[in-house]
Design brief:
Chain lengths: 310, 380
């Protein structure tokens, strides 16, 4: 254990924790927007897988990371339209249709991977961007300012999403539709249009999250996300539907994952016991869910389809 | 959820045809999507589907293997029928299967000397108990702490997989494997715990009739007992049920416990009906369950959340999963296609309610709501 508490090891854990938090953060920010408008998007896991494969395959073929990111976002856009059609226009039950989207993404990404790629070849993503001056600070620079541009992007999006939800007309509409769709409707806000908007944003970010995951790992494989999309959904509860809370949750999860990995690398936990430590994020999520649902109220209209009537 | 769809369809086609038509249309649409995907991958859809169906239903051995593949889907699906009918969305089938397998394996390791007529029922009961515990946890959390059961069951899936990986890599790992290999598996479990093979020369074992019996039991439970009445009442409207004096919280826990128990039986059967006679994985949940915890949901939705209709539905989806491997060899389309199609079926089935409603509005001249039951009964 003393190996773990060296400066070099701790700096490394914080740095990789931030890196590992990025996909969680992107997906959970999108999910926050969706849930604030009353839409539970459980398909995140599937959309992440599709976005991850899309980005991986594009970069494998073109060697252009930027194109990969765009494809990931594009995949999210398409899936967002589909999910909007299913849950808003056809008013399907959100939880179950989300599982449908998950299964579709799981099977489809695996299918395309086996058919188009077969053997997993590594891809090369973005070079780390050392922020001038800041990255020179000893230790701190190494932890916070020597990351890929995608990592900075995710954290910049936190205040952006907070501003969108709390300070814009669209954000006001999102909150109104999420708390009381009938009232919003009577004031002339189109519940369907607002929810289509939030669903597309949510899926777009989920696709981006998948792309980031594939690029950071430099590889794709069947079920690459292995539950990260579902954890991202839980993080929204964890963060009490606020972007800053969600960021705190994502960072906690990133750090826990990084710690577990580092323990494994240093041989502090070996072999079978590493499975026990790998339970930590899931157990943490359940505990957090219990505490949060006791103390904070969720958006009133969450998971409830809106029927405008005649 | 289904009654709305049936009601709308009944208005158009008459009540008799309405029931089977909803899922039939959904699966046909999914097959059409699948055909397009096979074609897009450069193979002939007809050849693909022919290989798939021959592989699944072509001869007696194929039918027996399809039944074996359908067994976990039926047990999970039956559990899903009970949970969803009570408006509890149990996504934790994977974890509950694993929990059942773990507990039943422990029983077989501890009491391997018991005679077969005692040990076989005992491991099945142990499986049910293991699954029931894993289902009861999210049930309690939902009933008494208002924790969203979808999220808690998904998290418990992750916990169960890691618990399985830990146990199979150390405490109950095959002693021989510890020295030589790296496969996470137990030793060959006691002969007395093996499920008997049914006569007929196929691989069919006792697990299949057990699953069918459980489905029939669930049907009787839901529609012939007061517990079943309470489950359905809570599913229709929790406030109304509470007003009628039904203990809503206890009923939610009961729904999740029963649902988990059925998944747990599937876990025990997967271990003791396997040809290797061991509990073995590849480190992921899929390696042991074959995603039955998710595919069972598809079968249950396709069976209209009715345990008896879930029997043929599971048989169909078991066949698709089995036939997909034959298709993969015949036309080089990966078997993962079926997983993707399962997702499409789910989306179609849950969307079909509203779709039917819209179609029936177009077809009939009556006002939209006349003569049709309220369209939504979503299990939330």
């Amino acid at each position: 254990m003393s190996d773990f508490f060296t400066m070099a090891s701790l700096v490394f854990v914080v740095g990789s924790g931030i890196r590992l938090a990025t996909p969680f953060l992107l997906a959970a920010l999108g999910e926050t927007i969706g849930q604030r408008s009353g839409v539970l998007n459980l398909g995140v896991e599937g959309v992440m897988l599709l976005g991850a494969f899309g980005a991986y395959y594009t970069i494998l073929e073109t060697k252009t990371p930027v194109l990969g990111v765009l494809v990931g976002i594009g995949v999210g856009l398409v899936m967002g339209v589909v999910y909007g059609l299913v849950t808003v226009s056809l008013r399907a039950e959100q939880g179950i249709s989300g599982i449908g989207i998950f299964l579709f993404g799981l099977g489809m990404s695996d299918l395309l991977f086996q058919k188009q790629v077969g053997t997993p070849l590594p891809i090369r993503g973005f070079d780390d961007w050392h922020i001038p001056l800041l990255s020179e600070i000893p230790k701190v620079g190494e932890m916070f300012f020597q990351h890929s541009v995608l990592v900075y992007l995710a954290f910049v999006l936190v205040p952006v999403v907070a501003f969108l939800i709390n300070r814009t007309t669209f954000g006001l509409n999102i909150r109104a539709v999420g708390e009381n769709p009938a009232a919003a409707d009577s004031l002339g806000v189109s519940v369907a249009r607002v929810r289509y908007g939030t669903i597309i944003l949510a899926n777009l970010l989920a696709g981006l999250a998948g792309a980031v995951l594939a690029i950071e790992l430099g590889i794709f494989q069947q079920n690459l996300t292995s539950g990260q999309g579902f954890i991202a959904v839980a993080l929204v509860y964890f963060g009490a539907w606020r972007p800053t809370g969600v960021m705190a949750g994502a960072l906690l999860f990133g750090l826990v994952s990084a710690t577990v990995l580092q323990w494994k690398t240093l041989g502090i936990v070996s072999g079978a016991a590493s499975s026990i430590t790998a339970m930590a994020p899931a157990v943490l999520t359940i505990v957090a869910l219990v505490i949060i649902t006791r103390t904070v109220g969720q958006p009133s209209a969450l998971t409830k389809p809106f029927d405008r009537g005649s | 959820m289904r009654r709305g769809a049936r009601g709308a369809l009944a208005a158009v086609f008459g009540p008799r045809l309405a029931g089977p038509l909803v899922p039939a249309v959904a699966v046909l649409a999914a097959f059409a999507v699948g055909a397009a995907m096979i074609a897009a991958l450069g193979a002939n859809p007809l050849d693909g589907y022919r290989a798939l169906f021959e592989g699944a239903f072509g001869d007696l051995d194929a039918l027996a293997d399809t039944s074996l593949k359908a067994m976990p889907l039926l047990l999970v699906g039956t559990g899903i029928c009970i949970a969803f009918r009570a408006s509890v969305i149990n996504i934790g089938g994977e974890g509950q299967i694993i929990a059942g397998a773990i507990l039943s394996t422990f029983v077989a390791l501890l009491f391997g000397d018991l005679p077969r007529p005692v040990l076989v029922p005992l491991v099945l009961v142990a499986g049910a108990v293991g699954g029931a515990i894993w289902g009861a946890i999210p049930g309690f959390l939902k009933a008494y702490s208002n924790v969203n059961e979808i999220l808690s069951t998904i998290m418990l899936n992750i916990v169960a997989v890691q618990l399985m990986n830990f146990l199979l890599r150390d405490p109950i790992m095959d002693p021989a494997e510890k020295i030589t290999g790296r496969i996470p598996q137990t030793e060959r479990l006691s002969e007395n715990a093996h499920l008997p093979i049914l006569p007929g020369g196929t691989r069919l074992n006792l697990g299949v009739p057990v699953a069918v019996l459980v489905a029939i039991f669930a049907y009787l439970l839901l529609w012939r007992t007061s517990l079943g009445y309470r489950l359905r009442a809570v599913g229709h409207s929790a406030p109304a049920a509470r007003y009628a004096g039904i203990p809503v919280r206890r009923t939610i826990v009961a729904a999740m416990t029963l649902s988990g128990a059925m998944c747990g039986i599937a876990g025990a059967i997967l271990v003791f009906g396997s040809e290797s006679h061991r509990f073995v994985t590849d480190g992921s949940s899929v390696g042991f369950t074959g995603s039955a915890g998710f595919n069972g949901i598809v079968a249950a939705l396709f069976g209209g959340l009715h345990p008896l209709w879930t029997i043929p539905a599971s048989f169909l989806f078991g066949g698709l999963l089995l036939g997909a491997n034959v298709m993969q060899r015949a036309v080089q389309v990966p078997a993962a296609l079926i997983v993707a199609l399962n997702g499409v079926v789910v989306v179609f089935v849950v969307s079909s309610d509203r779709m039917r409603h819209l179609i029936s509005e177009r077809l009939s001249d009556r006002s939209p709501e006349a003569g049709i039951e309220p369209s939504r009964e979503a299990p939330t």
